[in-house]
Amino acid sequence: MRYLNQIGRYFIFLNKVFARPESLKMYYRQIIIEIGNLGINSIGIVAIISVFIGAVITIQTAINITNPIFPKYIISLTVRDSILLEFSSSVVALILAGKVGSNIASEIGTMRVTEQIDALEIFGVNSASYLALPKIVASMFFFPILTILSMVIGIWGGWVAGVASGDITSDEYIYGIQYEFLPYYIVYGLIKVVVFAFIITTISAYNGYTVNGGSLEVGQASTRAVVYSSVAILFFNVVLTILLLQ
Amino acid sequence: MISVNNIYKSFNGKQVLKDISVTFERGKTNLVIGQSGSGKTVLLKCIVGLFEPDSGEVKYEDVIFNKLNSREKREIRKKIGMLFQGGALFDSATVEENILFPLNMFTEIPLEEKLERVNVCLNRVNIINANHLYPSELSGGMKKRVAIARAIALKPQYLFCDEPNSGLDPKSSILIDNLIKEITEEYDITTIINTHDMNSVMEIGQKVVFIFEGTKAWEGSNQDILESDNKILNDFVFATNLTKKLKLK
After folding, report:
1. At a CB cut-off of 8 Å and minimum separation 6, what does B243 contact?
2. Which end of chain B is less crowded, N or C, counting CB atoms within 10 A of the terminal residue's CB?
3. Residue A127 confidence (pLDDT)
4. DSSP state of A18
5. Which of A25, A111, A123 shows the shortest C-beta gap to B77?
6. Alpha helices, DSSP H, located in A100-214
7. In angstroms, what separates the C-alpha of A126 from chain B's closest C-alpha?
8. How confident is the model over B51-75, as pLDDT tens digits?
């Protein structure tokens, strides 16, 4: 019953978030700021994780393909499909749920307990919309760019690891990543990450916005934001996979 | 003028405000006093619409505020300035950006005029050369003064102050009190101040409303307090040895 109540309040919050903005100019400025905070500041972590995951998939696939019947390019084909289909969208989204989700919930939660949200309301500003909408727009715009970056860097990381370890030659690797390539896999990954960006920002903003208490509750809201966002991402990953790939 | 008629408010079954009716006059500093937990902040938040009263009405001039829809309430709120207990300055914005916020949000005047207004407001609260500082770089008294500057940026008709002196030394407190009183008279606005600071009451309390356990227990001016024989009020106001001596005189 408590969860149903929370879900209902979440949708009421969304209704408030998507109300008509008071000043488009101010919202535009906030979107630019949030692209920096939520998107550009996440490039580093996405790049580091992608390069290492690409490398690990290459090495693990090479270890498991011991039968000489299988051509070597299967290694890079596996890396490509793993990264395009799952890693760069779903796993990167889970990582961003941790980084960006906790950031959003703690920022808005702190604004709530220090009465900054009340101050916005007193100014006659729709605080839910002003605080959450720029974050939603910024992440739905920039997370796909992070995903493309992750795809490129992950596949490059696999190439570096494969060639450096001698498991695969550069030509075999490049042949593998081009073999029966379906551009739709990229579209599929991008559609998923746009949905995940919406999930991460709205759930985290809701948890921050509804904080009641002090610093302890802000911490709890931050944890809840990450957990709920992650569970929602995993659930919608299955739903979107059925809808988009079957 | 703001009037509150028969306001009731409860949280989780606990009655916090009980049948409060009071009128706050324009051009005067109206003080709401009472012990911590007596319901002062809840009353203030009901008046500005941050809490919805269970019953009763809040009137701004002739408009019943708590019956308006959220868009209509926002129009009234554009005429309101509020000083929060902790200042509630936006942490991620500089002093200048904090004061620019309402101007950017609700006015179309050129940036030069907005910056001019920012400097007028900062000068009014005696803050100079702090435009580019962040709230974390300001003292408690400076934060309160910047918050006042932000509250008056749009030339409000109503000013609300929640515990403006909390956490301040006596000298800074008097400075803030006098500033609020001067602004009230200068702009001819309706000011409501929540406080339990008796110095403030005696300094600027042109009208004082005493709240006790969620009900209005007394109202009058700061001079009337000295002559009042209301036991609950006297127990609160003359709680210290110093104030007891003042009463005996």
Report:
1. B198, B237
2. C
3. 92
4. T
5. A123
6. 102-113, 116-122, 127-165, 170-178, 184-209
7. 8
8. 999 999 999 998 999 888 877 887 8
Q: Is the ipTM of this complex over 0.95?
A: no
A171 to chain B, any CB pair closer than 8 A? The answer is no
* Helix (H), strand (E) at residue B195: strand B190-195
Looking at the predicted structure, is the pLDDT value of residue B104 above 80? Answer: yes
- Give the tokens for residue B136: 């974390």
Chain A positions in Cβ-Cβ contact with residue B91 (cut-off 8 Å): 110-111, 114, 116
What is the per-residue pLDDT across B164-221, written as a single tens digit (0 to 9) for each? 888 778 888 888 888 888 889 988 999 999 988 888 888 888 899 999 999 999 898 8
Which of A103, A106, A123, A218 best probes binding to B when mutated, by most B CB atoms within 10 angstroms? A123
Instruction: Please name the residues in contact with A15: beta carbons below 8 A apart, sequence gap of 6 or more.
Output: none
Reported pTM: 0.86
List chain A residues with CB under 8 Å of B86: 114-115
Nearest by CB: A124 against B74, B84, B104: B74
pLDDT value, residue B248 = 64
Residues whose CB is less than 8 angstroms from the CB of residue A158 and which lie 6 or more positions away in sequence, other chains included: A54, A55, A57, A58, A75, A76, A79, A83, A173
**Residue-wise over B98-118: b if at least 16 C-beta within 10 A, else e?**
bbbbbbbbbeeeeeeebeebb
- Chain A residues whose CB is inside 8 A of the B78 CB are 123-124
Higher pLDDT, A164 or A23: A164
Which of B51, B80, B84 to mutate to probe the A interface, most A CBs <10 Å?
A: B84
List phi, psi (to 5°) of B195. Answer: -155, 160
